[in-house]
């Protein structure tokens, strides 16, 4: 069985995963701020702008993951644990991988958000995950529920480090859970995505 990315012990000097695991901002504080400072929230998702009226279209306590899925229909991102423990809801936030279930929608004003729907179908990361199947590593997905989150974290990693080491890949994906146990295949897919990117001239 492949070894799960998450380790029970960590070296103190190890780098933190690229997925930011910040706790939720106190809801009451943000609700008060939203009521006092903004009536309209504008979200830019996958290059498109959306406008919401606070109190009518959305409430200050709505998470970014909820608004993306239920209000805008970007169901590529998944909500599983809804508490920042599984990585399924990962999106890019100004180019960095974040857990959208831990971010309030009102906090996203003025930021660039990219969900998996915002990536082209021939994106090197997507094609590498789809093609992954080789002896000793297996596939990068089975049920596919966790795949969008893995893809977005891999995208953020490769944007920052086009040729990551295996240890850097494992560290970047350590906040994700794959219930099918495809960890070895996922890591290999990211390595192949790196190779595909290099073959295209380093553009992701």
Q: Helix-strand pattern, N to C?
A: HEEHEEEHEEHHH
* Overall pLDDT: 88
Order the strands across the largest sheet as they lie in space: 2-1-5-3-4
Based on the coordinates given, report the CATH architecture of the largest domain.
Roll
Largest sheet: 5 strands, mixed
Distance between the termini: 32 Å
Return the CATH topology of the largest domain: Ubiquitin-like (UB roll)
Low-confidence stretches: 7-14
* Oligomeric nature of the chains: single chain
Structural class: alpha+beta
Highest-level CATH class of the largest domain: Alpha Beta
CATH superfamily of the largest domain: Beta-grasp domain
β-sheet strand percentage: 5-15%
| Number of domain units | 2
Describe this structure in words.
This protein folds into 2 domains: about 25-115, Ubiquitin-like (UB roll) (Roll); about 125-200, DNA polymerase, domain 1 (Orthogonal Bundle), CATH 1.10.150. The relative contact order is 0.18. The chain is built from 6 helices and 7 strands, in the order H-E-E-H-E-E-E-H-E-E-H-H-H. It has about 200 residues and is of the alpha+beta class. Helices cover about 30% and strands about 15% of the residues. Helix 3 (about 125-130) crosses helix 6 (about 185-200) and helix 4 (about 145-160) packs across helix 6. The strands form 2 sheets. Strands 2-1-5-3-4 form a 5-stranded mixed beta sheet, covered by helices on one side.
Topology:
Layout: H1 27-37, E1 40-45, E2 48-53, H2 64-71, E3 90-93, E4 96-99, E5 112-114, H3 124-131, E6 133-134, E7 138-139, H4 147-160, H5 166-172, H6 183-199
Parallel strand pairs: 1-5
Antiparallel strand pairs: 1-2, 3-4, 3-5, 6-7
């Amino acid at each position: 069985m492949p070894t799960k990315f998450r380790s029970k012990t960590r070296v103190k000097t190890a780098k933190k995963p690229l997925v930011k695991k910040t706790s939720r901002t106190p809801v009451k504080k943000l609700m008060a701020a939203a009521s006092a400072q903004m009536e309209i929230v504008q979200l830019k998702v996958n290059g498109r702008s959306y406008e919401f009226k606070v109190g009518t279209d959305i409430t200050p306590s709505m998470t970014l993951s909820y608004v993306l899925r239920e209000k805008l229909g970007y169901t590529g991102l998944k909500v599983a644990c809804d508490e920042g423990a599984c990585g399924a809801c990962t999106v890019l936030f100004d180019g960095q991988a974040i857990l959208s279930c831990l971010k309030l929608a009102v906090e996203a004003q003025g930021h660039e958000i990219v969900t998996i729907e915002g990536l082209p179908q021939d994106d090197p990361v997507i094609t590498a995950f789809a093609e992954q199947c080789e002896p000793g590593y297996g596939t990068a997905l089975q049920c596919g529920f966790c795949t969008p989150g893995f893809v977005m974290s891999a995208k953020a990693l490769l944007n920052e480090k086009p040729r990551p080491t295996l240890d850097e890949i494992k560290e970047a994906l350590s906040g994700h859970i794959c219930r099918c146990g495809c960890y070895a295949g996922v890591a290999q897919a990211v390595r192949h995505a790196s190779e595909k990117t290099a073959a295209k001239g380093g553009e992701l």
